[in-house]
């Protein structure tokens, strides 16, 4: 049996993200209040806390007044957990029991019901002598108390008893009272609130907030989390300033000499690049050139695709002579196809952090922000979260390429969100008409980290990849959204043999 943990030392919660938020975990030998509406994840979080204790050889006790032991075992089975080593005490208040022997025949007052219920719980604690306890839930104690004064007094008595027995306790409260009883906040050492949000479209989103934690500097604000097979996964709010590290400054080439020249040599490591333009103008294809070059250098690449399924993405790459399947098989390339309606900002940041810190990814392509932004109309401060994410990637020495589709195809165009001020480099793609054919133009309108050409060049895509032509001296109107070409066809790129692509 392990030795008792020193007073108020950190105790692992069983959820690594929550431990990070709590600066190490729960406080040993203290009582913690976890509150949230039904379905917010309190029971799952409590079971993970006890399972973490079982792994350390501790005695663990789950006292349940709201769910039966059978229901708890079923929850554990769904997550693939084995609750052996956890004592589950199914506590049924006398007035709720169907056993006639448990009913009072002469007196049946709420005082006796509450007193007997608490005595049964304390007797079980005395028998098991656990170091970790989950008490589920305080709502039943509130109902039996029939008054806020008696309820507070009873919870205070439970807290004092648990403290005397050197137990780290999670008390769960489902907030089913007409008004949330904030009196408990002053009694608990820490208060964590779980919330479940239901958007107009898409899966529900969950988040948590640490309201208080005595004697410890925790990470405040809201943090997204998921409940999936295997338990709760918490994504701490990303603060870029906490994750800086040194890296070698270098220029990253696309393998296309004319495109690199347009960018003043290429993209700088530790910067973010925004490729913006109308749908079909070649934004993703230009990004593929950088992906292929990075893979050929042996670097790890992550592509987060919001708009294309994996099969279409691979087929499109193959159509320009870029075979990505061998790189996926080798593990250098990871393509994550994501439904934007089911991904919270915290989960997106968590995925990127895992790829950078655990898999060593050196280039990230996000294709595209447009679908993601449009799927999250109710998310406040989304641009601020993007700012933290891009700053984090830059500080890790990652080359980040973002794609943003503009509204409209020809003429005046607008963007669903302004990311130009967040980006270090901005590539602008446009359509123009010349000699009865639709052509593409590319230009660099911004680069913070060095010089770049101020010319506008023709962009052409064929089976051999991306080509960038000479500067279009007679090209005008690109920044108005109504480009026009007044020169002769002799200055335009010719179609290659067996080109097949415009």
In words, what does this structure look like?
With 502 residues, the chain is α/β, with parallel strands linked by helices. It has 2 domains: 10-237, P-loop containing nucleotide triphosphate hydrolases (Rossmann fold, 3-Layer(aba) Sandwich); 249-491, Rossmann fold (3-Layer(aba) Sandwich). Helices cover 30% and strands 27% of the residues. The chain contains 14 helices and 24 strands. The chain has helices at 16-21, 42-55, 69-79, 110-128, 138-145, 148-164, 183-187, 257-262, 283-296, 310-319, 325-330, 345-359, 369-374, 382-395, and strands spanning 10-11, 26-27, 31-36, 60-64, 86-90, 132-136, 168-173, 190-197, 205-213, 222-228, 231-235, 251-252, 267-268, 272-277, 300-305, 333-337, 361-367, 399-405, 425-434, 437-447, 456-462, 465-471, 475-476, 484-485. The strands form 5 sheets. It has a 9-stranded mixed sheet, with helices on both faces. Strands 16-15-17-18-14-19-20-21-22 form a 9-stranded mixed sheet, sandwiched between helices. Helix 5 crosses helix 6 and helix 12 runs parallel beside helix 14 (382-395). The chain is elongated. The relative contact order is 0.11.
Please write out the topology.
Layout lengths: L9 E2 L4 H6 L4 E2 L3 E6 L5 H14 L4 E5 L4 H11 L6 E5 L19 H19 L3 E5 L1 H8 L2 H17 L3 E6 L9 H5 L2 E8 L7 E9 L8 E7 L2 E5 L15 E2 L4 H6 L4 E2 L3 E6 L5 H14 L3 E6 L4 H10 L5 H6 L2 E5 L7 H15 L1 E7 L1 H6 L7 H14 L3 E7 L19 E10 L2 E11 L8 E7 L2 E7 L3 E2 L7 E2 L17
Helix pairs in contact: 5-6, 12-14
